[in-house]
Design a protein that fits this description.
By secondary structure, the chain is α+β, with helices and mostly antiparallel strands. The protein has helices at about 40-50, 95-105, and strands spanning about 10, 15, 20, 25, 75, 85, 110-115. The protein contains 2 helices and 7 strands. The protein folds into 2 domains: about 10-75, no CATH class; about 85-120, no CATH class.
C-alpha cells in the first residue's frame, strides 16, 4: 500500500485455483490498480520478494462455480492508515519524539505532525 498499490483483504477463508486461503489473505487485482503508474507486476514481485511471500496469479480473478470473485463482497479494499500526531502544551517532547520515531521509522506509517495543542482542535475529519 505504501507503494501506491490498491489492496484487498479476505473477510472469510476462501478457495481459489484448488488452493485454500485463510481469512485476512491479501489480494491485489489489476482492475483495482488500472491507474497504477509504472509496472504493477514488477512492484508486486519486488515487494513479495522483499517480504519472502509467494502467491498464485490468476488471469481473471473470477471464482469458478460458487467460489467468490476476487473483487466481490468477500474482499474489502484496505485504506492506508491516516495518523496525526499532536504535540504542544502538556505533551512531553521526549515522548512526542519517541512516538513519532516509532510510527515513522519502525512501523513505516506516514505521520502528519502538528504543534497545535490537542485541546485547540475543534474537529477531526476521518
Amino acid at each position: 500500500m505504501e507503494r501506491g498499490v490498491q489492496v484487498r483483504v479476505a473477510r472469510k477463508p476462501f478457495r481459489f485455483d484448488d488452493r485454500r486461503f485463510a481469512r485476512g489473505s491479501v489480494v491485489i487485482t489489476t482492475l483495482d490498480n488500472r491507474d497504477f503508474p509504472g509496472s504493477l507486476e514488477t512492484t508486486v514481485d519486488q515487494t513479495a520478494n522483499e517480504l519472502r511471500l509467494d502467491g498464485p496469479r490468476h488471469p481473471l480473478g473470477l471464482g469458478e462455480g460458487d467460489l467468490p470473485d476476487l473483487g466481490g463482497e468477500y474482499f474489502v479494499r484496505l485504506e492506508p492508515p491516516r495518523i496525526a500526531l499532536l504535540g504542544r502544551g502538556s505533551f512531553n517532547t521526549t515522548d512526542y519524539g519517541a512516538t513519532w520515531y516509532v510510527l515513522d521509522t519502525i512501523w513505516g506509517f506516514a505521520t502528519r505532525t502538528s504543534r497545535k495543542a490537542a485541546d485547540s482542535i475543534s474537529r477531526v475529519i476521518m
